[in-house]
Amino acid sequence: MAKEITPLQLFTSYKKWVVNNPGIVTDLETVTTWSSYFIAGKINKSPIVSELVYTVSKLISLFNDRVIREAYDGEFQHYGFRDQVKLWLTIVHYCEVFIELTVKNKWGNRGKWVATTLIQTFKCGSALILLYRFKELPIQHPPIPALQRKKFTEERESDDNANSYFTLKRSGRVLRRVDGAPPIALRDWQRVKIKDNKTTNTEIKDLVHAELLYILRPMVHLAAMRAFGTTAWKQWLVALGLDLASFKLYNRHMKELTYEQRIEISRRKLGFILYLLRSPMYNGYSKNVIENVLTSMSNKIPAMSFVCDPIIRYLSHWQDIYFYMWAS
């Protein structure tokens, strides 16, 4: 008689497979994520099904990242309150569009706005906790980024050689550990240099205010849409003004930011392109320009018709779903 396999055994086997085959797992996740875009318009209620496939693929990817991280770190992982806040923020980030579409399909636009307000209130409150309690800024989007698995699973070295030196208590002199020194051919025989992370109170206040404006922008924009309407220029200009004010404060201290922080700020700056796809800019100006450009590309380059035609067909539909201030 065959031995019955329990769910726990299946779960354990799955985790081992993920750890042993990170490349295959990544490829499968990529295929699943991209399949969500091809589903659009092909089946009944395709936006909801498409978002469901996308959401599930991202949540599975998030879980697989954690499995790989725990396996390769080789030590017990303690997830404190900060990690839990970031985890739930990331989960909501991947699920919010699917939730909005599902609620709208069942309870209409009024239900959608209620769900949107609740989601953004949670995101805003959680981000404020990360900002003021844990001094994290800028907060990444999503808070837990996708793991670079190939780089992570290879032999890693600490960027700052944090464990390769120690400080003498009396003199304060920094000395390199024997086992932390680089190979002889790569040694420069210079004293260890420690980064100076001191920042002034003015810099800290500016950075906190910059991040606060970015965090509050979705809530302020929702309030402006409630007051002026979803297609009014006032709500569009309010959100744009908050973004510009936030970037102006960040730009004052870009040299003091780390590489990862500057990358996040650059990602946010690219988000300005989305203002062309948001009402009323999209309805009044961008729509015709984008459609004319795509049509011209489709006519001049035959192969591009397979890409441009679906975009032209579903652009207005996607604009209605994705290009809101709070979902970007």
UniProtKB/TrEMBL annotation:
Pfam families: Pex16 (PF08610)
One CC-aspect GO term: peroxisomal membrane
InterPro entries (alphabetical): Pex16
GO biological process, one term: peroxisome organization
The keyword Cell membrane is assigned to this record: no
Superkingdom: Eukaryota
Listed transmembrane segments: none
Entry coiled-coil feature ranges: none
Keywords assigned: Peroxisome, Peroxisome biogenesis
Keyword Aminoacyl-tRNA synthetase: no
Subcellular location: Peroxisome membrane
Family label: Belongs to the peroxin-16 family.
Protein name: Peroxisomal membrane protein PEX16
